[in-house]
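User: Sequence recovery, please. Input:
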């Protein structure tokens, strides 16, 4: 009688089943486009894995042979796939530039078949591949990448080949500068930013209002944004509040630079960012609070509106900023509420890395403020105290403390400064390259003459002598000065400059400067601004500039004739080397321009 036996697999039967499973071949189907070992596309691909690798795992001695056999069969039926190898890109992605930069732009979305190609998305040699019209793909790439965004959008409508090239250009863009039209601004900016997944620098010129919706669109479309600049036209209004700006800065972990105009509706803000290093905000007005939690902030520019009813507490703001931003190097503050107390709060912060300090329109900043600045920050390279009430004594303190570091000094709109202080500064600051003394040496009666209005043209002799003594002369001799601004110095009647490196001179509205008392010994001059000056003075400037250029051209070697009777200029082939010929061409190209309008 046959009795049913329990099903027990023996080692022999188990081995037979494993062998059958290993030899089993599924039905032939359409081949995969990817490699079975590394997962990369097969086209043009050489697998980096060893072809002789045994798909089965190594068995280890155990007490159950059947278990070992089943493990081998399972590993054989499903061979493990190695993870795809990350491609190493040797070329950085270039910006969608309007300037002449390097000629290749790599896309972040490389096809794995041609990851080493400088022109992403092209299977063939760009010089051999032709697009519509017989133009090589490489040539089309170089032409289209120089177009502005509007031109690039129009080029995408030409044909399929151009559209594909523009898509690769948009994907490769890291920098974008746009002028946003007044209508449909949100849809326009959203459609453009969607094309640039790798964008890191964005600059917008707004002709329409800016609000939180625009910020949200930028935050969503540009996850890796590092620099953002928003400027507004005269008709546009920035409606972004302080809370909305604070949330945007906190969400953008990669943001390092933020520049924004028209910030009159902020009301107050709290900025917290560990990556932000540059912050420019303009048109600020009556801020209730300003909190900076930015330990890596190095440059800050805060321009307040020039309204007298501004209620911003600058002393508290500067004190908090100095304590929370210890790495500050450049500070620029423009406000009519700047005072000596604000300067004391700034000096108490003890910012050791401070190199540039600009406190503009602070009429309550005096020589005592200069003494506090000089005692706390002795390594300043730029100092701007335009619109302050400092005098020649303050200039003396600056020269005594900063002779070895200061290269730019701006003291425009300082009515207590005389020509003696300006001469002393240029004599005591050997590294000075830029100096602005506009509206310092002024004639107070040059704009209003009540005697002419009343019809009485006769002035007392004493008053005539007083006005005559009011005019001053200025003599500057400096070997490194490159830019000098004396705009609006109507109190000057004599000027003598001996500056071989000076290339830009501003004499706008120097109405009382006499032509016969003008001496310009500046062979490197390129621009002279003379708007609002007398016609005779403009003629004297042009004459002296042309004489200076002629003297430079006549510096070449001259030789006598054979009989020694006359000195003539030697031919270039005899007297000048190649370097002298280059110098001659450079002198001819750098003609000085006298700008009147």
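Assistant: Recovered sequence (597 residues):
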């Amino acid at each position: 009688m046959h009795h049913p036996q329990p099903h027990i697999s023996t080692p022999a039967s188990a081995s037979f089943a494993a062998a059958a499973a290993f030899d089993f071949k599924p039905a032939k189907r359409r081949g995969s486009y990817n490699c079975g070992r590394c997962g990369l596309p097969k086209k043009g691909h050489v697998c980096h894995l060893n072809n002789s690798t045994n798909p089965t795992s190594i068995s280890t001695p155990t007490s159950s042979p059947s278990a070992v056999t089943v493990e081998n069969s399972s590993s054989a039926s499903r061979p493990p796939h190695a993870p795809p190898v990350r491609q190493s890109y040797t070329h950085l992605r270039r910006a969608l530039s309007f300037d002449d930069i390097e000629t290749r732009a790599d896309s972040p979305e490389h096809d794995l078949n041609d990851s080493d190609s400088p022109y992403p998305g092209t299977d063939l040699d760009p010089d051999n591949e032709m697009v519509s019209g017989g133009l090589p793909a490489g040539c089309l790439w170089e032409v289209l990448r120089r177009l502005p965004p509007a031109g690039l959008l129009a080029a995408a409508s030409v044909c399929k080949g151009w559209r594909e090239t523009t898509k690769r250009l948009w994907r490769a863009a890291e920098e974008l500068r746009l002028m946003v039209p007044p209508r449909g601004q949100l849809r326009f900016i959203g459609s453009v930013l969607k094309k640039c997944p790798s964008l890191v620098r964005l600059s917008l010129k707004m002709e329409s209002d800016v609000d939180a919706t625009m910020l949200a669109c930028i935050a969503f479309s540009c996850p890796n944004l590092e620099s953002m600049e928003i400027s507004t036209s005269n008709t546009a209004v920035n409606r972004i509040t302080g809370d909305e700006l604070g949330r945007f800065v906190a969400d953008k972990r990669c943001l390092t630079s933020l520049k924004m105009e028209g910030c009159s509706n902020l009301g107050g803000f709290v900025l917290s960012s560990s990556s932000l290093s540059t912050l420019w905000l303009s048109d600020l007005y009556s801020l209730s609070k300003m909190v900076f939690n930015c330990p890596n902030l190095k440059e800050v520019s805060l321009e307040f509106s020039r309204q007298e009813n501004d209620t911003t507490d600058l002393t508290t703001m500067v004190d908090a900023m100095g304590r929370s931003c210890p790495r500050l190097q450049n500070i620029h503050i423009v406000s009519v509420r700047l005072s000596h107390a604000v300067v004391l709060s700034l000096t108490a912060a003890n910012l050791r890395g401070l190199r540039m300090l600009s406190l503009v329109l602070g009429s309550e900043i005096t020589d005592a403020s200069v003494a506090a600045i000089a005692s706390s920050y002795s390594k300043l390279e730029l100092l701007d105290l335009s619109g302050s009430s400092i005098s020649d004594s303050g200039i003396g303190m600056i020269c005594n403390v900063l002779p070895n570091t200061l290269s730019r000094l701006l003291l425009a709109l300082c009515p207590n400064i005389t020509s003696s202080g300006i001469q002393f500064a240029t004599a005591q600051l050997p590294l000075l390259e830029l100096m602005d003394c506009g509206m310092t040496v002024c004639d107070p009666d040059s704009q209003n003459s009540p005697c002419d209005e009343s019809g009485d043209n006769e002035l007392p002799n004493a008053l005539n002598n007083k006005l005559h003594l009011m005019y001053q002369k200025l003599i500057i001799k400096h070997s490194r000065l490159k830019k000098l601004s004396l705009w609006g110095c109507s109190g000057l009647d004599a000027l003598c400059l001996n500056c071989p490196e000076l290339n830009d001179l501003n004499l706008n509205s120097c109405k009382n400067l006499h032509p016969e008392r003008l001496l310009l010994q500046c062979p490197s001059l390129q621009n002279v601004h003379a708007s609002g000056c007398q016609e005779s003075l403009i003629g004297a400037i042009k004459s002296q500039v042309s004489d200076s250029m002629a003297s430079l051209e006549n510096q070449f070697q001259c030789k006598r004739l054979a009989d020694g009777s006359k000195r003539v200029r030697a031919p270039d082939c005899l007297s000048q080397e190649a370097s002298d010929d280059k110098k001659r061409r450079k002198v001819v190209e750098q003609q000085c321009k006298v700008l009147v309008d």
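Residues 272 and 293 are 4 Å apart (CA to CA).
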